[in-house]
Amino acid sequence: MKYLLILAIVMVVLWLWKNNRRTDINNSGEKTASPRPKPPGVATEIVACDVCHVHLPRSEALTGPRGVYCCVAHRQQAGSQGHP
User: In terms of Cα–Cα distance, which of 59, 25, 17 is closest to 42?
Assistant: First the structure.
């Protein structure tokens, strides 16, 4: 019987510690849940930088008048070259 009482006390202490920790995280402004991943079946379009040909998602690419680029330097480099 005393082992059940000790187990119950340990469980209560762990529950209180976990709840207190969750409250501290919420008060500090940190996110408690991770962002939701995209549902399966939703494809991300991949494009290549017109200067270095690195592949990256279109949502992260920078667009310019002559194409798609991986960084500002490559967009400027392509813009500074003369028209073909």
Answer: 59
